[in-house]
Amino acid sequence: MIGQVLRLDHVVVREGERTLLDVTALGIAAGETLALIGPNGAGKTTLLHVAALLRRPDHGSVHILGQTASSRNAATLRRALSVVFQAPLLFDVSVLVNAAAGLRFQGRSRQEAERRARTWLERFGVGHLTDRKARSLSGGEAARVALARAFATEPSILLLDEPFSALDAPTRTSLLPALRQCLRETGAAALLVTHDRDEAFAFGDRVAVMSGGRIVATGPAPSLIAHPPSREAASLLGVETILSARVTGIDNEYTCIALQPAGPSVRSRTSLSPTIPAGKPVSLTLPAGSVQVLGPAEFAPPEWNALPGSIVEVTSLSSGARLVVETPAPIVALIPWVASKHRWASGEPAIVTFPPESAHLIPELR
Amino acid sequence: MDDLTSGLGEAARLLFGGNTEVWEIIHLSLRVSLIATTIALVLGVPAGAAFALARFPGRSLAVGAVYAGMGLPPIVAGLLVSLLLWRNGPFGATGLLYTPLAMIVAQALIATPIVAGLTLAAVSALDPRYRLQLLALGAGRMQTVWWLLREARLPLIAAVVAGFGAVISEVGAAMMVGGNIKGETRVLTTATVLEVSRGHFETAFALSFVLLGLTYLVTMILTLLQRHYVRVQR
């Protein structure tokens, strides 16, 4: 693909009988940020190691800046990359020596390496720590130094393996925008491996979802959440309402389904094939943010689905109230605090309402 | 107990009473042990690092051999060197047996597996991700090894101290390949053995105190060097 700075083609990594990674194709364009999410053991770190040319795949190829990586050119191609691991992995020397290490390995003079390292340490707000011993830094400071060290070599591609996972929320919140800003200014592409969905959605132009060594979905976060390609992808993307249903009818605009077992009828704008037979099993996915909950006397907007039920669970989150409404199929709604008119309580009757556009259907392969 | 206290006095008299023979013995002991430790360092550190970092068939056997070598009895090392340097041995023509050089060879043979084994353990104990980080930063093979050794410098100093301690205090090999010849190959340990065999316990204690003091001094210097190094890196 033209314009891709990093590409993995039919990459397979095995460990004994176990397949750790089986990626048909994954590419990152120049200047693009891709966030890779998935549960523990999904193969995210293995993929990052392969992309960083730190692990040779058993099958397939890795292409960096248009060149196919091999044992002969790996050391040269690695200089186009910078990797930041989960732990900052700073060496037991001064902050400045750490930040200048990559440049020194590239053969730059000490003076030039330290000058550029100082610039990047300043950028990440740790310029005053240059003479400190790296091991004496706090977690947040060490993470900033690790990022400065990664940017100092001016890489074309930055590979980040959960670099913020050990940090507290305020530090993480302050570092992520700084990182994005630096990526924008340098034009470097980035691959962020994380198990934090919010971090992935905030960071990536695109999100790739991994499970069992495979990539099960890729795309911009809003479109993936609204239209996940599979139940598994929906679940990994944090979509909580994933229900079994059967097609009851299809017209030009809507697909009508009945939630299983013996649940209410729902209309969806997902266009399934018109030849799809009635009774065909499908899965309904519904992002919590697209669901509204009304009191029994309120009216849903016209054309919207409206399912009466009762609230069975109320959880207070930082972003709003998470409600589970039994219709009897359980539907999860996230009501932002500002939009919440009621203080919902468990056992209250309620009407769940959502537009047909947000009711996404996935045909089941049975 | 009397021997012990009078040994301290004797030690002071030997050192500061104008006895040149003791100073010659100290000088030779230091020379032989320091050179042997340096050789062990030059051979043992790269070997230990290579065994820790390289993957090759038979690595486990090689690592096992290094660790077994750490327990090599000095008398066995002395015997090996004696056989090699014996008149009819493969290097008999060199005429090195009963010379300080033969003692250096034997002591280097004792210290090298100690330094290599402790280096191997020190580098193996490092977080393996440091190696990945170095590779990711574009470090070449030698740069990677150097940075990892630097990372393991504290246990490496301990390896040097252990190697030096093993050779300065050993007596079997020094006796076997050096012969304890007065003015030529007599070192503190062989001299102590001789004094004990003569029944001169005061002198034997005196020499032991000197040996202890010497070991402490060298270890102290290495520790100070290490602290200085750490300060410089800050």
How many domains would you count in the coordinates of chain A? 2
CATH architecture of chain B: Orthogonal Bundle
CATH architectural group of the largest domain in chain A? 3-Layer(aba) Sandwich
Would you state the CATH class of the largest domain in chain A? Alpha Beta
Query: Which segments of chain B are poorly predicted (pLDDT under 50) over 5 or more consecutive residues?
Result: none
Largest sheet of chain A: 6 strands, mixed
Would you tell me the overall average pLDDT of chain B? 90
CATH topology of the largest domain in chain A, by name, is Rossmann fold
Rg calculated over all Cα atoms of chain B: 20 Å
What is the overall number of helices of chain A? 9
Q: Which two protein chains have the largest interface (Cβ within 8 Å of the partner's Cβ), and how many residues from each?
A: A-B, 27 and 19 residues
**Net shape of chain B:** globular
Report strand % of chain B: under 5%
Write down the secondary-structure element order of chain A: EEEHEEHEHHHEHEHEEHHEEEEEEEEEE
Description:
The complex is a heterodimer of chains A (about 375) and B (about 230). With about 375 residues, chain A is of the alpha+beta class. Helix content of chain A is about 25%, strand content about 35%. Chain A has two domains: about 5-230, Rossmann fold (3-Layer(aba) Sandwich); about 240-365, OB fold (Dihydrolipoamide Acetyltransferase, E2P) (Beta Barrel). In chain A, β1 (about 5-15) and β2 (about 20-30) form a beta hairpin. The longest helix of chain A has 18 residues, at about 170-185. The two termini of chain A are about 35 Å apart. Chain B has about 230 residues and is mainly alpha-helical. Chain B has helices spanning about 1-15, 20-55, 60-70, 75-85, 100-125, 130-135, 140-150, 155-170, 170-180, 190-200, 200-234. The model of chain B has no long low-confidence stretch (mean pLDDT about 90). The interface of A and B includes residues 82, 92, 97 and 102 of A.
